[in-house]
Amino acid sequence: MVTIDNQINKPLDDIEVGHVFRSGGRTITEADVVNYCALTGNWIEIHSNLHYASQTRFGERLVQGSLTYSIMTGLITFGPSIQANYGIDRLRYVHPVLINDTIYVTAEVIGKQEKDDKYGIITLLMKALNQDGDVCQKSEWSLLMLRRQEDLDELMAGSIPTEKPRKKK
Length: 169
Fold this sequence. Notes:
Helix content is 25%, strand content 34%. With 169 residues, the chain is an alpha+beta fold. Strand 7 and strand 8 (135-146) form a beta hairpin. The longest helix is centred in the N-terminal third of the chain and has 11 residues, at 30-40. It is globular and about 65 Å long. The chain starts with 6 loop residues before the first strand and ends in a 10-residue tail after the last helix.
C-alpha cells in the first residue's frame, strides 16, 4: 500500500538508504505560472504566450521547470534536522508539465555520508510524477543535516521559547 510519508524530520543517522518519501499531490494552476513569470522575469513565450505555445510541438503552454522543482521541494517537508541545501545534480526535465497537471513527489534516499561528528549529507533521488504516473522531472538533491538525535534535541531546546510564568499583581 502506498501512503503519504512526506516529512523528513529525523537526524541523518536514523534514516535508512532505500527509504522512499512520498508526497500528496499539488495541481499547478494558471495563477502559479503567471505569478512565477512575474516573480522571476521568466516570460519565455512557451510559458506566457498562448498563441505562440499552440504552434509548438507541445500545442500548449508549459510550466517552467524551475517552478516544478520549487513545488517539488515544498511537497517534501523538511524538519529542523535539515541545515542547508548542499546541491542539485543530474537535474533533468524528462516530460512536460502542463498547466492543471497534478504533481506528486517521491524522494528516495540514495546516499548518506558523514561530513564531521555533527553533520552529514543525505542525497535524495527526487522525482516529480504527474497524475498519469509519467516522471516529469528528476534530480539528485543533497542536503546538509544533523547526524544525531542529541544534536537535534540541543538545537530545538535552544531555539523554541517556553512560556514565562505570569507575574502576580
